[in-house]
Amino acid sequence: LNTGQKLTNDNTEVLPGLGTFYQWTPEFGVLAGVHRGIVPTGPAIGDDVDPEESINYEAGFRYQGRRASGELIGFFNDYSNLLGACSLSTSCSDPTGVFNGGEVDVYGFESRFAMEPPVTGGITAPLTLSYTYTETEFQNDFSSAFPLWQEVSRGDRLPYMPRHRVGLSLGLSASNW
């Protein structure tokens, strides 16, 4: 919505993070990380909306063999304030609306397995299978004008966040294509 009004905002944030990977054997390694996340509010957003802030943790294992690879990584995202934003799909009366969602925990694990078996004559068939399991949980009670949240009780799940996601990719590969 162009009102002709000039709005400004100034944000300075430090986003520390630390990640490590230890190569245990030539094929197998372990990883861990912790990172701070933030989504600042825009200049048109009122002072009653706080930035989205989180601390994100991950740890897992990674395998890289000659013809196969895989990983299993657990994650925990600790939101001190999750933002909800209006869009065409959220049925908001104010299409520029942004709303505080309070404290939310998002956790689970993600996995990936890939291999590239030979088919014939220098042709291989790359295959990748991925799976993510996600749990979500609001950590406080509140009422919201955001249509996807409305009345929230501690322990409620985030709406429209699937618990299970699966991806499968299969292809053909050769030296020139």
Strand content: over 45%
Number of helices: 0
The run of helices and strands is EEEEEEEEEEEEE
Instruction: Write down the overall mean pLDDT.
Output: 89
Cα separation of the termini: 47 Å
Low-confidence spans: none
What is the radius of gyration computed over CA atoms, rounded to a whole number of angstroms?
22 Å
Number of strands: 13
The coarse overall form would be elongated
Q: What order do the strands of the largest sheet run in, or round the barrel if closed?
A: 1-2-3-4-7-10-13
Helix content: under 10%
Word description of this protein:
With about 180 residues, the protein is mainly β. Helices cover about 0% and strands about 50% of the residues. It contains no helices and 13 strands. Strands 1-2-3-4-7-10-13 form a seven-stranded antiparallel sheet, with no helix packed on it. The chain has a two-stranded antiparallel sheet with strand order 5-6. Strands 8-9 form a two-stranded antiparallel sheet. The mean pLDDT is about 90.
How would you concisely characterize the structure shown here?
The chain is mainly β and 177 residues long. It contains no helices and 13 strands. 0% of the residues lie in helices and 52% in strands.
From the structure above, extract its key features.
mainly beta
Q: What's the topology here?
A:
Elements: E1 17-23, E2 28-39, E3 52-64, E4 68-81, E5 83-85, E6 98-100, E7 104-115, E8 118-120, E9 123-124, E10 127-138, E11 142-143, E12 151-152, E13 164-170
